């Protein structure tokens, strides 16, 4: 016999005792009469005593049943209260959200808007992890993440918020010294800075309007785990780098950087809000998803060449 109490049997017994009818208890619990009867019978067998005297017209508690009915009723009521409290908690945005966000994007575009989120949802708190490394949401116990990728992880539930373009850039000083590349192959042999956390190895994949494709592996004096660390080398005119739109647009606008190979494009990714599973999300996570959808779906970092 299992050492776990038969909570289901106790609940069914409590309801039958309250209703004085298996049929009425079954209706109240949304179960079949046979299911309730089996549950009470299983409890009687476990306890080794009858709980009801049954006749064709009447159902009455035995003396043993009377001693148990009050305790079973308290257990049933406590379970109902616990469920009601849990439903209220899940329906109202409150509690802690563990959120993973890429570092540069989080510092530039997430942290500045969080005050507005907390004003709207004062009962929610966020544990924000900023890292460019891919986080195991399930294994590390995260509620959600923002990810910038060409495709979302198929094991996660992803909501696309917006597209994110990527640009190969250099400083005007670099172009004065080395000249602009006319074709992606012209980058071979040049100092091109690398990024350690690219999902499918550090390769720049170009395509043009004619459908031609070219893949270049960047080689240069610096490889980083955060794209912002590439910026000083580019601004100094020492190398070429590939930067996401949400970083590059600032420097393209004021001409401190120039977009290269504009007849070609790199594979366009997207910004995704991802969660570990398809189960119903708590209200706090849904509130954060909606907030990001409103604030990040039409971003100000857009760059039109």
From TrEMBL:
One of its GO terms (biological process) is DNA-templated transcription. Keywords: DNA-binding, Transcription, Transcription regulation. The keyword Transcription applies. The keyword Ligase does not apply. SUPFAM superfamilies: Periplasmic binding protein-like II, Winged helix' DNA-binding domain. GO terms for molecular function: DNA-binding transcription factor activity; sequence-specific DNA binding. CDD domains: PBP2_CrgA_like (cd08422). InterPro entries: LysR-type_TF_proteobact-type (IPR058163), LysR_HTH_N (IPR000847), LysR_subst-bd (IPR005119), WH-like_DNA-bd_sf (IPR036388), WH_DNA-bd_sf (IPR036390). It comes from the Bacteria. PROSITE patterns: HTH_LYSR. It holds the Pfam family HTH_1. Residues 5-62 form the HTH lysR-type domain. Belongs to the LysR transcriptional regulatory family. This is LysR family transcriptional regulator.
């Amino acid at each position: 016999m299992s050492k776990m109490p038969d909570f289901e049997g106790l609940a069914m017994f409590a309801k039958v005792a309250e209703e004085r009818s298996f049929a009425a208890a079954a209706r109240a619990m949304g179960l079949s009469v046979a299911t309730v009867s089996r549950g009470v019978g299983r409890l009687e067998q476990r306890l080794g005593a009858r709980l009801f005297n049954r006749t064709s017209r009447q159902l009455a508690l035995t003396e043993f049943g009377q001693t148990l009915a009050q305790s079973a009723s308290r257990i049933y009521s406590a379970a109902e209260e616990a469920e009601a409290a849990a439903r209220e908690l899940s329906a109202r945005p409150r509690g802690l959200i563990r959120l993973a966000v890429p570092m540069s994007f989080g510092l530039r575009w997430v942290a500045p808007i969080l005050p507005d989120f907390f004003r709207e949802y004062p009962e929610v708190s966020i544990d924000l992890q900023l890292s460019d490394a891919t986080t195991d949401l399930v294994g590390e116990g995260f509620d959600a993440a923002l990810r910038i990728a060409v495709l979302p992880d198929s094991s996660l539930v992803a909501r696309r918020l917006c597209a994110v373009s990527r640009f190969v850039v250099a400083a005007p000083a670099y172009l004065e010294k080395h000249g602009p590349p006319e074709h992606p192959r012209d980058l071979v042999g040049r100092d091109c800075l690398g990024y350690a956390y690219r999902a499918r190895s550090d390769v720049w994949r170009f395509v043009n309007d004619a459908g031609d494709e070219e893949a270049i592996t960047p080689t240069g004096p610096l490889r980083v785990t955060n794209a912002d660390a590439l910026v000083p080398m580019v601004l100094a005119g020492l190398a070429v780098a590939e930067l996401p739109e949400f970083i590059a647009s600032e420097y393209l606008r004021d001409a401190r950087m120039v977009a290269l190979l504009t007849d070609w494009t790199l594979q366009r990714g997207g910004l995704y809000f991802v969660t570990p599973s398809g189960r119903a999300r708590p209200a706090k996570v849904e509130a954060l998803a909606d907030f990001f959808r409103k604030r990040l779906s039409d971003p100000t970092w857009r760059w039109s060449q």
